[in-house]
Amino acid sequence: QVQLVESGGGLVQAGDSLRLSCAASGRIVGSYAMGWFRQAPGKEREFVAGISKSGGSTYYADSVKGRFTISRDTAKITVYLQMKSLKPEDTAVYYCAADGRPSWNTIGVLTPGGMDYWGKGTLVTVSS
Fold this sequence. Notes:
Blueprint: E1 3-7, E2 10-13, E3 18-25, E4 33-39, E5 46-51, E6 58-60, E7 68-73, E8 78-83, E9 92-99, E10 117-118, E11 122-127
Parallel strand pairs: 2-11
Antiparallel strand pairs: 1-3, 3-8, 4-5, 4-9, 5-6, 7-8, 9-10, 9-11
């Protein structure tokens, strides 16, 4: 059983930075690729960023490429999402999720329906 708990959300202004954390418990080290998703009011949940089981490969949605960075600390079993140059359109509930299907050092677009575990989310609000 894997449990994921997100933290770090809040209210920021456009242009600010924020770092989200996802603390994982259970047998996750080396077993799951990790992803961040977000869901804005009235919209579908969308992929934001993913990182491979090894931590050596990352993949980003075009909308956040160059602004967001995903990383994982294997020792602390934590996944981070560093967000810079935030825009009002980044406002959403951000979710951490785990996917056991990708191979060790491979990551691409992750789909909400393919994830094995989800956190409950953390709200990020970016004011203009």
